[in-house]
Amino acid sequence: MQHRRQAPPLPATLFGGAQLFFVAATVTRQTVHEAEQLARQVDASRLPMQVVRTARLHQPPADVRVRWMQVHRAPDRVPRLLECLRATADDEPATMIFCNSIDACRFVQHTLAEHGWDSAACHGGLPPPRRRLEFERFVSGTTSRMVCTDVAARGLDLRFLRRVICFDAPRSLSEYLHRIGRLRDGGECVVLLRPAARDQALAESVRQQRRVGERARQVATR
């Protein structure tokens, strides 16, 4: 919404009767307030605008299975990650493994290589040309695993993706929604949770959001 204050208004004649939709993956109260304010300011006779709301906003895909795997210590995440991968070694579903830092990505990728598993990488520590090559390896199926930071959590439409593993738990509910949102057609999301208060608070926030989503779906089907 800040771009509205930086750019001049577009003339309605540019739209030629077309419908425009302004959408976002996550929406704050401030964003909703500014959208409603903008809708009131626009000349409805020239460019009618309305804000549409849904009770299912900020909900993960309903057809994605979510598994929370508790670990007692941070180092315990490695055997749990390997356990997840070994369980599907025969099928090798396309998997994104999310980490919270470049160093963690490099550590996970090195660990996978030590156990004989190839993987692509996508994070800010790679120059853009290399990042594109790594991404193409994943998309083409050359490797079924991509280790990444949240640079890969937005804007990627990967219909072939079947699993998301959060080696590092997301730092916020918004990050969680972006990560799990990569799963377009079902699949599984596995989150490795440490006893840390932040990780446990995230899990509780997700459970609350899921309960809200379930109530919304029940109302919608009545």
From TrEMBL:
Q: Which PANTHER family does the record match to this protein?
A: ATP-DEPENDENT RNA HELICASE DBPA, ATP-DEPENDENT RNA HELICASE RHLE-RELATED
| This protein's name | Helicase C-terminal domain-containing protein
Q: Which residues form the Helicase C-terminal domain?
A: 77-222
Q: Which GO terms describe its molecular function?
A: ATP binding; hydrolase activity; RNA helicase activity
Record-linked PROSITE patterns? HELICASE_CTER
Task: Write down the Gene3D superfamilies for this protein, in alphabetical order.
Answer: P-loop containing nucleotide triphosphate hydrolases
Tell me which GO cellular component terms the UniProt record holds. Answer: cytosol
Keyword field = ATP-binding, Helicase, Hydrolase, Nucleotide-binding
Xref: SMART domains: HELICc
Question: A Pfam family this protein belongs to?
Answer: Helicase_C
| Signal peptide (from-to) | none
